[in-house]
Write a structure and sequence with these properties.
single chain; mainly beta; five-stranded antiparallel sheet; 5 helices; S9 family peptidase; signal
């Protein structure tokens, strides 16, 4: 009887593991040296994969059962690779928005894949009505529109938004905003580390450490900046700035949170989730997490831990990734309470927030120590590496490893752009003692009640993102190409399997 019960329990355990992790698809993709890799999922369970390789556009439509519905290999006649900056899922299509430059003219070039049949359409180019002396900052897409953001010498913001018709043509309308922000000690400092945040972005400190973040909701754009060197503030203080761009009125509003002490390095960061703005402050002997009502900016919940005090909101241990040794694992667990605060404060503060259940939210809290900052050299024959790049699409954060190329192969407007220069790793033109490579991530995860923001009891259930991380660590060799995207309340991890020479997509579900 006891043997029967034990066998039954083991069977149920294996069944639960199988339901929490499974292979979604195994695809024959001609991946050699792709320039880009983007994955998008719709509400019906269809997945569309895109990559650019050897002057050809590759699209693959995968059904909810993991079967290939359509594959396309489209010759691309232009010399430059298309800059896919955002995606949207409409009632009929997956749309990939790319930017094309021709001299001083900028165009939006959309590509569409039918969600049911997989049919490919190259939509008509749309030229932007640009003023002279405007500079491209970035592009992004949400569920309703595709946006392109520019600035000029007067620090105005030129925001373009797609107005898609039934035929799918992306007419780009423009609004010019004059925010009149307080001056920073470094010109364009706010635009040097600005990224778009989609609700389904990957939950890692690598995604959440940026000091400037863009959010779109209710037809408005919110730009939140942390720790900028403002001339009006004391040099030992900094604040969180909130700039709202109202598309309907063409007006902007500016608000700030209370200033915090900050010396040389960034000491805090923030993340907007639904109607709550979370701000994380890290010091070598202190951690403070405050949640603000985004409408009133009044604090609604605060957690403070200092010294050797246990961080009570932790739902996982404190992990550190990127400290790879010759015979050591890439991941280490910080077990000593006395070292936790110091390890967390070694890099740039980072926080992300998301929800995989109806009653709780999941926070990733920690820091990220990126590779050494670039110090461009005049030697254009030096080798420059495009590092592991994170492409933010309307359905999440996608990653693809970089390649070593001569500096003269990279256009100067990329290397010198405050928006794109951070994507390039330039070891022969940089100084400092920071490590090269993917950087060091130190973090833990917390599960809070969605209503009260009190710590929720997660029991022994493993978090979805931790399952993905564990699976990646157990792979015998690091994948050459991989992507992570949200699939309903699940996560998909796609990677190129060298052994089978196929692209596998694994599905990870939360435990009930």
């Amino acid at each position: 009887m006891h043997r029967f019960i034990l066998t039954l329990l083991l069977f149920l355990g294996f069944a639960q593991m199988a339901s929490a992790q499974r292979e979604f698809a195994n695809l024959e993709l001609p991946l050699r040296q792709p320039e880009d890799l983007v994955s998008v999922a719709d509400d019906n369970g269809n997945v569309c994969l895109y990559f650019y390789q050897n002057n050809k556009l590759h699209f693959t439509l995968v059904s909810p059962t993991g079967e290939v519905r359509a594959q396309h290999e489209i010759p691309y006649r232009w010399n430059r690779d298309p800059q896919v900056l955002g995606t949207r899922v409409t009632d009929t299509d997956f749309i990939f928005y790319s930017r094309y430059e021709n001299g001083r003219r900028d165009y939006v070039r959309p590509f569409a894949i039918n969600r049911k049949t997989g049919a490919f359409r190259s939509l008509q180019d749309v030229e932007l009505d640009k003023e002279r002396n405007t500079y491209f900052v970035g592009g992004f897409g949400d569920d309703e529109h595709f946006y392109m953001l520019y600035t000029d010498r007067k620090d105005r913001l030129h925001l373009y938004r797609s107005n898609d018709s039934q035929e799918g043509l992306a007419k780009m309308e423009r609004r010019i905003f004059e925010p009149n922000l307080p001056e920073t000690r470094t010109r364009d400092a706010r635009l040097m580390d600005l990224v778009y945040v989609h609700p389904d972005m990957e939950q890692t400190v690598t995604a959440g450490y940026h000091s400037g973040k863009i959010y779109s909701r209710d037809g408005n754009i919110y730009m939140i900046f942390d720790g900028q060197p403002l001339k009006d503030l004391n040099r030992k203080e900094a604040t969180t700035e909130i700039l709202a761009l109202d598309w309907d009125t063409g007006k902007s509003t500016y608000r700030t949170l209370p200033a915090l002490e900050q010396r040389n390095d960034p000491a805090f960061n923030s993340f907007l989730f639904r109607d709550t703005l979370f701000r994380l402050q890290l010091d070598r002997d202190k951690l403070n997490l405050t949640a603000y009502n985004f409408t009133t900016l009044e604090p609604v919940k605060t957690y403070t831990f200092s010294g050797d005090q246990e961080i009570a909101i932790k739902s996982t241990p404190v992990y550190q990734r990127g400290m790879r040794g010759l015979f050591a694992s890439d991941v280490d667990t910080v077990k000593q309470t006395s070292k936790v605060m110091k390890k967390l404060a070694d890099g740039l503060p980072a926080i992300t927030v998301n929800a995989f259940t109806d009653s709780t939210i999941q926070l990733t809290i920690g820091s990220y120590d990126p590779p050494g900052e670039r110090n461009p050299s005049q030697d254009m024959s030096r080798m420059v590496r495009t590092p592991d790049q994170y492409y933010r699409t309307s359905r999440g954060l996608m990653m693809i490893p970089g390649r070593w190329v001569p500096a003269y192969n990279i256009p100067s407007y990329y290397l010198n752009s405050p928006y794109y220069s951070r994507y390039f790793y330039d070891p022969y033109g940089q100084g400092g003692s920071r490590p090269s490579g993917p950087g060091i991530s130190t973090y833990f995860r917390a599960v809070l009640d969605d209503n009260t923001l009190a710590k929720a009891d997660n029991g022994t259930n493993e978090l979805v993102q931790d399952k993905v991380d564990k699976f990646e660590q157990e792979l015998k060799s690091e994948p050459d190409y991989k992507t992570v995207y949200r699939y309903g309340n699940k996560l998909h991890y796609g990677y190129y399997d060298r052994k089978t020479k196929t692209f596998r997509i694994m599905e990870f579900a939360p435990e009930s």
